[in-house]
Specification:
With 194 residues, the chain is of the alpha+beta class. It is 19% helix and 40% strand. The longest helix has 18 residues.
């Protein structure tokens, strides 16, 4: 893929949808989360008209504090999963990216104070509308050894979410897909928190 990737979504949309484009402006993924579902269900498409599904992301359980989201392709083959670390994620976002049952990568928030300040200022009437211009949380995808692979950072935006994904190390195609699907799910889950 041609990095950096750009991720965009409308904050005020009823059904969560986001698009991922590469550095040339070509659409990589178009993502739609099904609205009003008890169990999270996300479809990743190759096109904005939503005619070519590529991957599915489904919650393992209906309600779970340490939710796990399973990735499958259109044939139903398992591609891995991402799991939110419940108690660890209260202060600082923490997700494990798994291949089967083994953790191959982690996603961690770079600076928890950014999220805290963003949340507090976001509650102030009128001023809260402009937090998208002021605070920019970043998330790091790394190996368990600590080697940095990808970095996702929120960008200034008004009434939409904008993120940039930068590549810091080589990944094989399966790992890259698993990492990107994990970042997409994390954005959908964390969007209310900055």
């Amino acid at each position: 893929m041609n990095y950096p990737l750009q991720v965009r979504f409308k904050i005020l949309a009823l059904a969560r949808q986001l698009s991922v484009t590469d550095a040339s402006g070509n659409l990589v993924f178009y993502v739609k989360q099904k609205a009003f579902k008890l169990k999270e269900a996300v479809t990743v498409f190759a096109d904005a008209s939503q005619t070519q599904p590529l991957y599915f992301i489904n919650a393992a359980r209906i309600l779970d504090f340490s939710a796990r989201y399973l990735f499958t392709d259109t044939s139903g083959a398992a591609l891995g999963s991402v799991q939110r670390k419940g108690m660890k994620s209260i202060w600082k976002a923490h997700y494990d990216i798994l291949d089967g049952e083994s953790v191959t990568m982690t996603i961690r928030e770079e600076n928890a104070w950014t999220k805290v300040i963003d949340s507090v200022v976001g509650e102030i009437p009128v001023v809260g509308l402009f937090t998208g211009y002021m605070f920019h949380p970043a998330y790091l995808v790394a190996r368990p050894s600590g080697a940095l692979l990808l970095r996702l950072e929120k960008q200034p935006a008004f009434l939409e979410g904008r993120f940039t994904i930068e590549k810091h190390a080589d990944l094989d195609k399966t790992e890259e897909t698993r990492a990107l699907l994990s970042l997409i799910m994390m954005i959908l889950l964390e969007r209310g928190r900055g």
